[in-house]
Design goal:
The structure is a single chain. The protein is mainly β and 174 residues long. Helices cover 0% and strands 41% of the residues. The strands form 4 sheets. Strands 2, 3, 5, 6 and 7 form a 5-stranded antiparallel sheet that branches. It is elongated.
């Protein structure tokens, strides 16, 4: 059980959903096992978990960055669950205090243009990435609309790089 709050104002974040995963001891894969969404007070309770170590992330549709327990923020909705903190659970007992403090996400937006005509390039892939730790990279991608515009949301604070991938004869660029 726990509470999902805004990291700055401490206001509850109702509707934020906490997903709980168990890591397979043989394959190392993270398997979703249960979830619950926060109520109006930000409280949630995931029930029926078996004993062992579990991992959790919280997602929402209110402009907050996806986060792992305990405090690691993710680019987009995808997280490397192994970067989270394991939550020890004993079957039949309540593990309280698994709280989340969410940050409002940043936005990167722009237009991909043809260098010689300045026309926007439709349907070009734009990937935004940041370095995490020593050699780790987190990446999220989107495509431009018909006018060449793109927007990537829910980004935690940090330094980002963007690059394009085009399949229509244009060079790829950072």
């Amino acid at each position: 059980t726990g509470v999902v709050r805004d990291a700055v104002t401490l206001a509850p974040v109702p509707g934020a959903c906490v997903d709980v995963y168990h890591r397979d001891s043989v394959t190392g894969a993270f398997n979703p096992v249960a979830w619950d969404c926060a109520d109006a007070s930000g409280s949630y309770a995931v029930e029926g978990l078996l004993s062992g170590s579990h991992y959790a992330d919280v997602k929402n549709f209110s402009g907050y960055v996806t986060a792992l327990y305990d405090g690691f923020t993710c680019v987009g909705y995808l997280c490397d669950l192994s970067a989270g903190t394991a939550i020890p659970v004993t079957f039949g007992q309540t593990t309280a205090g698994v709280d989340f403090g969410l940050e409002i996400g940043g936005v990167i937006r722009g237009v991909v243009r043809d260098e010689s005509t300045s026309s926007g390039l439709a349907y070009t892939q734009v990937s935004v990435f940041r370095r995490v730790g020593g050699a780790g990279i987190e990446r999220v991608s989107t495509s431009t609309d018909t006018s060449g515009a793109y927007e990537v949301r829910l980004l935690p604070p940090g330094t980002y790089f963007a690059y394009t991938t085009s399949w229509r004869g244009y060079g790829n660029e950072i």
